[in-house]
Amino acid sequence: MEIINGLDFKIENSAVSLGKFDGFHRGHRLLLNRILEQKDMHATIFTFDGIWKGPQIYVEQEKRDLLQRLGVEREVLFPFREETKSMTPEAFIQEILVERMDAKLICVGEDFRFGCGRRGNVEMLDEYASKYGYELCVFPKICEDGEVISSTRIRRELAEGKIETANRLLGDPYFVSGEVVHGNALGRTIGMPTANLVPGSQKLLPVYGVYASRVEVDGKIYAGVTNVGVKPTVGASQANVETTLLHFDGDLYGKQMKVSDIIRELNRLGAKHGIGIIDIVENRVVGMKSRGVYETPGGTILYEAHQQLEELILDRDTTALKLDMGNKFAQIVYEGKWFTPLREAVQAFVDKTQEYVTGEVKFKLYKGNIIKAGTTSPYSLYNESIASFTTGDLYDHHDAEGFINLFGLSLKVRAMKLQENEKKLGN
């Protein structure tokens, strides 16, 4: 994505979305989607550089990563200084939007203001549309739970630890990204190494606490547990983001890492369709039966996705034993026996089986049901040529005769013995 910073620029045939874009929430997405629909124009974001001074939901690099992922071609960072502050709304339309940006489509929110003294508004943009030949799209505010979706509201939700609500308003999971730095390496002393990010003062962090997270490193996704806050017990004073990655064995120092809250997002999606609700009578460790009603939409979706991948990747015998060992592992954890040699041994088996369990899983969610819609993996053991029985060179159905003779030997011996006994009785 091209970044234009300054006053000396000239672009052509652009579809422009104007705003502060300090959060890229669902309201902003309406504007972005509109300009991205214009396949014959260049999708361009225009914002004022330096207008926002406080902590940001997404810092500049995070914003650019998001924009690039969405397909935006360029971002214009217009300097907010005395020269530009004094520009009249009329001059801004003519000199910037028309002459420098060649805007054919302009998308703004209904409260967008611009020009000296904020005198410019959507009515003025509409007034000049026919004169300069651009199309104007004005988007109203959108509401969630009776309240307008805004960056201010999202900041409040993050400050209160309501990550699920913030994710719903954003339209994407909130995340923190940056370079992994060296910590005190205390986690390694207990076999739980962690990755440390220091996001800086410009990054708006959620309320201090511990979060389930998804971590992206070198294009791969790992489950993680993330602590946000300071660590005064180990001599720290600056807020940082410390993540323990599950099933990761490698060196993270110096790598770019992004942490997002996938569990909470899946909880939101799954809950809408009644996924993951269970009513059971369970046998407690203490010897009693107890009725429990549980709801784990995100966990249920992830579990189902994992099963689908294992179905493709693991061989028959490993799949059968993995099922037994998985139940054993769950029992060990349920009984609080984490720090035991048995847990370590079972986990070693599970970890080994998961080395190649990766891929893409698609589901449809409907009235409590998770419906398979396609699973792919570079390590899939499924081969149509083999599975067809009738085509291909890798499988000859006559080979099955050997197994029939081998596994049927005991039956053959039994039949011969019965026949022999019948003859004796007949005599």
What does this structure look like?
It is a single chain. With 427 residues, the chain is an alpha/beta fold. It folds into 4 domains: 2-141, Rossmann fold; 174-262, Elongation Factor Tu (Ef-tu), domain 3 (Beta Barrel), CATH 2.40.30.30; 271-376, Argininosuccinate synthetase, chain A, domain 2, CATH 3.90.1260.10; 394-427. Helices cover 37% and strands 25% of the residues. It contains 14 helices and 18 strands. It has helices at 26-36, 60-70, 82-85, 89-100, 122-132, 151-159, 163-170, 262-272, 297-313, 316-334, 341-353, 384-387, 400-407, 409-426, and strands at 2-5, 14-18, 42-49, 74-79, 103-109, 135-139, 143-144, 147-148, 175-181, 195-197, 209-217, 220-229, 240-245, 256-260, 277-283, 289-295, 360-366, 369-376. The strands form 5 sheets. It has a 6-stranded parallel beta sheet with strand order 1-4-3-2-5-6, sandwiched between helices. Strand 5, helix 5 (122-132) and strand 6 form a beta-alpha-beta unit. Helix 4 packs across helix 5 (122-132) and helix 8 (262-272) crosses helix 9. The N and C termini lie far apart (95 Å). The model is unreliable at 184-192 (pLDDT under 50).
